[in-house]
């Protein structure tokens, strides 16, 4: 059975329109404040999102993610650049005329309205006929598994249920574009995980809806997004599929931000195919050299990126291992994270995640085995050690 939310009338068309990105930011700059006190919260930001894509805007606090989303929704005005929806320039359009669904962290439900009236709010504002409102509200509540709660007030719902209602309210207007600004940030860890699964289900049920998902949580970005846009200091630094950014990080920032990484400064030696010999001090390692391999000319300084879970902590002198001193140990439930000073890699502490609860006293000597190949090469934007 077709889902009514996936086939809004506005999208049904017999003629093929020229393919325009669903969302386009063209060199958008947003500044807050005036004169000397002004800060660029978004700087020369360019991004194209195809129809039906889910893009995560991922970055640390203050990197400009929410500002990008607000510029698209019309809540802030760019000082330069244009914002387009399906090719239409909406930069000067008020928010209500953009036809975008927005979900924010704080739910923002009307406390005195029952769930069904909260969900109907945007439809009434758009003067949709009453019979259609009833149908759309019940479709939207069904999408988020909240049909049984239509008569409740927001205060009679849990945080997760309130956020589902907020999502239903955004979906009820059948938007082409849905913006989600840290929608799970107010929920506890267990609930966040189950909501990620619900959002995956929703994303799959709405293949024509373009979603822009703002988060600082890399696991949410990896789970939900077809592509991840990494932001730092008001700018886009990297964009790619979750798999690309994870397994072949284009920059040390992205390598570190997506899940933690040991970044070892190295010098590239001989490259053969996608394998490179690299030297770190007097030690040689084999790294994988992602395409385009012309970046890895002999003598180039680079980072060798090794994920903590790829490191093996062994006994001292175990075959193929380097000697190391334990400088820290934190049990994290499923894993124990060790911080290690490896002999011959001065000024560099490496992190290793070991399954289960493992004890090695601080200052004890252990062996550490690197994966094979040892890691993936990452371009060094600045000086490496
Ligand atoms: N209304 C405002 N007035 C002045 N400065 C602002 C305003 N809103 C945001 N900023 C500043 O703009 C920068 C970007 O903020 P933004 O909220 O876009 O970041 P963010 O990446 O979404 O951060 P977070 O993850 O903490 O929400 C920050 O330095 C912030 O302090």
TrEMBL record:
Top-level taxonomic group: Bacteria
SMART domains assigned to the protein according to its UniProt record, in alphabetical order: AAA
Cross-referenced SUPFAM superfamilies: MOP-like, P-loop containing nucleoside triphosphate hydrolases
Residue stretches in coiled coil: none
UniProt keyword Transferase, yes or no: no
One of the record's GO molecular function terms: ATP binding
A Pfam family matched in the record: ABC_tran
Keywords, alphabetical: ATP-binding, Nucleotide-binding, Transport
Domain ABC transporter stretches: 23-258
The protein's name in its UniProt record: ABC transporter ATP-binding protein
């Amino acid at each position: 059975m077709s889902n009514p939310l996936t086939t809004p009338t506005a999208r049904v068309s017999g003629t093929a329109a020229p393919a325009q990105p669903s969302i386009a930011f063209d060199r958008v700059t947003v500044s807050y404040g005036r004169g000397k006190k002004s800060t660029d919260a978004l700087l020369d930001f360019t991004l194209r999102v195809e129809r039906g894509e889910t893009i995560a805007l991922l970055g640390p606090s203050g990197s400009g993610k929410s500002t990008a989303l607000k510029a698209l929704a019309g809540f802030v005005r760019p000082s330069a650049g244009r914002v387009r929806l399906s090719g239409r320039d909406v930069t000067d359009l008020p928010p209500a005329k953009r036809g975008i669904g927005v979900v924010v962290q704080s739910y923002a439900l009307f406390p005195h309205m029952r769930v069904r009236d909260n969900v109907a709010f945007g439809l009434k504002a758009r003067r949709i006929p009453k019979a259609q409102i009833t149908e759309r509200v019940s479709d939207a509540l069904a999408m988020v598994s909240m049909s049984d709660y239509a008569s409740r007030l927001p205060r009679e719902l849990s945080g997760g249920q309130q956020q589902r209602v907020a999502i239903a309210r955004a979906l009820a207007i059948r938007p082409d574009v849905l913006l989600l600004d840290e929608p799970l940030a107010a929920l506890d860890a267990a609930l966040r995980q189950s909501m990620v699964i619900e959002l995956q289900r929703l994303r799959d049920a709405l293949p024509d809806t373009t979603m822009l998902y703002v988060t600082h949580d890399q696991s949410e970005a990896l789970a939900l997004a077809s592509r991840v846009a990494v932001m730092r200091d008001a700018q886009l630094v990297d964009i790619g599929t979750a798999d690309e950014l994870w397994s072949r990080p284009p920059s040390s920032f992205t390598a570190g931000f997506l899940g933690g990484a040991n970044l070892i400064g190295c010098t590239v030696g001989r490259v053969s195919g996608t394998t490179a010999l690299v030297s770190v001090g007097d030690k040689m390692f084999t790294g994988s050299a992602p395409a385009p391999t012309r970046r890895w000319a002999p003598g180039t300084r680079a980072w060798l990126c090794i994920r903590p879970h790829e490191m093996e902590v062994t006994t001292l002198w175990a075959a193929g291992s380097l000697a190391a001193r334990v400088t820290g140990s934190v049990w994290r439930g499923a894993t124990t994270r060790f911080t290690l000073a490896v002999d011959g890699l001065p000024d560099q502490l490496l992190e290793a995640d070991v399954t289960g609860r493992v004890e090695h006293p601080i200052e004890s000597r252990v062996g550490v085995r690197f994966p094979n190949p040892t890691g993936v090469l990452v371009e060094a934007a600045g000086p490496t050690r």
